[in-house]
Amino acid sequence: MAISLLTLGGGEGWLMGKYGLTIDNLLAVEVVTADGQVVTASAEHNQDLFWALRGGGGNFGVATSFEYRAHPVATIYGGMVAHPVSRAREAFGFYRDLTQEAPDELTVYMSLFANPDTPDDIMLAMVACHCGDPASAEADLKPLRQFGPPAADLIQPMPYPVINTLSDGGYPRGAFNYWKSAFLSELSDASLEIMVDAMHRCPSSMSGLGIVPYLGAVARVDTAAAAFTHRAPGYSLLIVSQWTNQRETEQNIAWARETFESLRPYMTDRSYVNNLIAEDGQKVHEVWGANYRRLVTVKRRYDPDNIFRLNHNIDPSPEVPQCPR
Description:
Elements: H1 2-9, H2 16-19, E1 26-32, E2 38-42, H3 47-53, E3 62-68, E4 75-84, H4 88-101, E5 106-114, E6 122-130, H5 134-146, E7 152-153, E8 156-159, H6 160-163, E9 176-184, H7 189-201, E10 208-214, E11 234-243, H8 249-263, H9 284-288, H10 292-302
Helix pairs in contact: 4-7, 7-8
């Protein structure tokens, strides 16, 4: 289920600067359609369905198998460097410049979170993954490791699968979760001030904010090549609210909503479907933009009765307003 959701929505990852999104490496999908047929969608077969599945979510059928293009990545250099929030402005500016100039092999996420050892202390972390050769990795990561210097430097060589587990501890089993997400038009100092203030007001030390760069290979694909339309260079923002006491639900949800609204002036009208929650509603324009009209056409062919509708839905009804080009 997880790999299906990841793939059909687009698929962010640590190698996106070098190899693009998961859908950019998808070769074929076996799908059970609404009328019970088992079909294969690829560049050679059912091309319209293959186009729609790459970013259109679970709107067209049940995906039962995937075929991917694999890349030889064994050892990467990766991990976190962390800075105290008192140096957030300088670190944020450094991160902005670093990601704009980084080679495709280097992807760096950024996050704001509470220090687990002293929850009242807020940290700004840059988490890197370099999939190039060791000599290039050491040279490209040197500025990141020297800046500050950081309060913590955990970057080291590791098997590639390991970096995909580094954040697992931040999502403990049994915790309540509420997410809000968007794309930022730019990494401005004003948006940073709002994020830092939000962390100081955060009711739970388990919550945080994360930024994922859409740069490199992911931004060099034509927006019409697949249903996924977010190819302009930029940054995806994720606001993660987490707590364990059910009685604190209302205040933690309110924190995420208020933080989202305060950052709205710095957002674009784009939304990543894999980060949306049910209450976000049908943001078809923000999710698919000019690709929505073509998606409706494909939906009418493969699921005209909208059987697959318990999702961020592409409605095949003729009376549904369509997004402008």
